Amino acid sequence: MLKNPSPIAVKKICCIGAGYVGGPTMAMIAKQCPHIQVTVVDINQQRIDEWNSEELPIYEPGLHEIVSECRGKNLTFTTDVDETIRDADMVFISVNTPTKTFGVGAGRAANLEFVEKCARKIAEVSIGHKIVVEKSTLPVRTAEAVKTILSNSTTGASFDVLSNPEFLAEGTAVEDLISPDRVLIGGENETAINALVEVYANWVPRERLLTTNLWSSELSKLTANAFLAQRVSSINAISALCEATGADVDEVSTAIGTDSRIGPKFLKASVGFGGSCFQKDILNLVYLCEYFGLPEVAQYWEQVVTMNDHQKQRFVNRMVRTMFNTVSDKRIAIWGFAFKKDTNDIRESAAIYVCRDLLMEKAKLAIYDPQVKPEQMRAALESVMQDENGELNAMKRELLDNNVQYCDNGAAAADDAHAIAVLTEWDEFKDCDFEAIRDSMKQPAFVFDGRNLLKHADLCDKGFTYFGIGF
Ligand SMILES: NC(=O)c1ccc[n+]([C@@H]2O[C@H](COP(=O)([O-])OP(=O)(O)OC[C@H]3O[C@@H](n4cnc5c(N)ncnc54)[C@H](O)[C@@H]3O)[C@@H](O)[C@H]2O)c1
Ligand SMILES: O=c1ccn([C@@H]2O[C@H](COP(=O)(O)OP(=O)(O)O[C@H]3O[C@H](CO)[C@@H](O)[C@H](O)[C@H]3O)[C@@H](O)[C@H]2O)c(=O)[nH]1
User: Fold this and answer.
1) Residue located nearest, by CA, to atom 23 of ligand 2
2) Are 358 and 413 in a shared domain?
3) Rounded to the nearest whole angstrom, what is the distance from the C-alpha of residue 67 to the centroid of ligand 2?
4) Residue 152 is part of which domain span?
5) Whole-number Å distance between alpha carbons of 400 and 364
6) Is pLDDT at 441 greater than 50 in this prediction?
7) Which residues form the UDP-glucose/GDP-mannose dehydrogenase C-terminal domain (predicted)?
């Protein structure tokens, strides 16, 4: 329990970055704290326009209702960065921290350019005292750099820096924000820590508000993601052994998950984890370990990503092998492109890599996802097929132009196809008319279920040749 009962009362919050984290987290603070004015700023005018429209830039169950309730009252989206920062008591930095693609640490280290720009902007425009909160996922000791930049402010402003990493998962952002397992707040100044504690205490039970030092907080975020991803890679590694031995990975998951020391969550074997966070954050951890002279620790964590890449390749290899060693000119229905269900996010989705590898085998893809727009899919496939100079050779362009079709539903994608590959676990795929789908497909009608979503026995009874992960 915290000692200081009289924190600063926060009245105005600014959040820099109106993305998958900034948007939902601030909407939740606005909903739970009607006495706080929450303003989310971004340099991307289109994103801000979308937050101000009826079609939000991100799809999250329950989010639209909250935004509609608070927007125009105590929740604002604007590109007016300077004035909003100047007005606020507390400024969250919630910008993207992607893996660096250039220079020192390319492919591993986090690109902190956007965070640094935020710190410099805050230093430049602030007056009075501000609490600056790192909401982005950052390498341990980033707060040091943020503090140094802020301390060079020439406006006479003073600052406290807190780390408050976000643990929401996409697709369940609203429920995760309403009832988080914990909220982590790292800092040095107890008054500043308490100011943020009091914001969350409006709806989160106090025993779930954990306070630590800055570095523990920063490192806990990377560690949590590394542990979660490690579980997925561990069960995926076992899925390969299951396929070789006749064991069933879902049965193994249940068997080990009932051990309370292991627990049942995050043991679902799949075509591989995706999303903007896991790979990026593990590679960042790997880079940090190398930077701090711990190569064995770095190698240990890097295996989680290596295994994930292997799982995606294994999936494609199995498809090609099973379909008589060739998928060239065969229509393959791709069911799902998002990295998990209930989101329109495709960043690092396993589907991108599976589709790329199938295209390189000259397959004809018919892709359907209920929330992802064709132009998003096209851009992702184009990007993953470019060479290191960002160029597409004629063969790849032709594959993208002629071998990819975007469909309006799963049945349309499966029509006349040799196979269905289930790559996202959308609920609607479970309720398809599989008899009609079977009849519309080439025979044998193959199903490769990268999520173990569909009913195996039922599909076999209906005449499909079904392959899941790990059996
Ligand atoms: N996506 C998730 O589920 C999730 C969950 C927990 C933590 N995180 C972390 O949160 C951070 C943000 O992730 P995200 O998914 O919301 O990213 P995002 O790319 O969806 O959004 C980031 C936004 O920041 C804006 N931005 C960048 N620089 C800016 C600047 N200088 N001024 C104003 N706006 C600027 C961008 O235009 C973009 O709209 C990352 O560090 C990520 O690792 C993400
Ligand atoms: O048993 C499982 C669980 C997940 N996945 C896959 O793993 C990826 C990540 O899933 P999930 O963690 O649910 O979604 P994210 O939105 O990426 O959330 C993770 O990354 C966020 C960003 O850092 C953190 O805030 C969250 O706590 C952390 O769960 C997805 O492709 C899932 O399909 C599996 O294959 N098997």
Assistant:
1) 277
2) yes
3) 24
4) 12-212
5) 10
6) yes
7) 333-456
- pLDDT level of residue 6 (50, 70, 90 thresholds): low
DSSP state of 8: P
Q: Exposed, middle or buried by CB within 10 Å (0-12, 13-18, 19+), for 14?
A: buried
**Which residues make Cβ contacts (< 8 Å) with residue 406, sequence separation at least 6?**
367, 368, 374, 377, 378
Please check whether residue 164 is in contact with residue 184, taking contact to mean a CB–CB distance below 8 angstroms. Answer: yes
Where would I find the H helices in 201-294? Answer: 214-245, 249-257, 278-291
The CATH code of the domain that includes 123 is 3.40.50.720
- For the CA of 169, the closest atom of ligand 1 is 3
* 204, two tokens: 């989160």
Task: Please indicate whether residue 168, judged by its CB atom, sits closer than 6 Å to ligand 1.
Answer: yes
Residue 343 within any structural domain of the chain: yes
Task: Tell me, yes or no, whether 2 lies in a domain.
Answer: no
Q: What is the reported pTM?
A: 0.96
Residue 352 is assigned to a structural domain of this protein = yes
Coil, strand or helix at 50: helix
Residue 353 has pLDDT above 60, yes or no: yes
- Ligand sitting nearest the alpha carbon of 165: 1
Whether residues 426 and 299 fall in one domain? yes
249-269 tens-digit pLDDT:
999 999 999 999 999 999 999
* Count of structural domains, the chain: 2
Whether 1 maps to a domain, the answer reads no
Closest atom of ligand 2 relative to the 167 alpha carbon: 25
The two structure tokens encoding residue 346: 């495709």
ipTM, interface predicted TM-score of the complex: 0.98
d(C-alpha 100, C-alpha 87), whole Å: 33
Instruction: Please give the backbone phi and psi of residue 223, each rounded to the nearest 5 degrees, phi first.
Output: -70, -40
201, 272: one domain: no
* Residue 7 pLDDT grade (very low, low, confident, very high; cuts 50, 70, 90): low
* 86 within 8 A of 108, measured Cβ to Cβ: no
Q: 289 with 343, same domain?
A: yes
Same domain, 399 and 366: yes
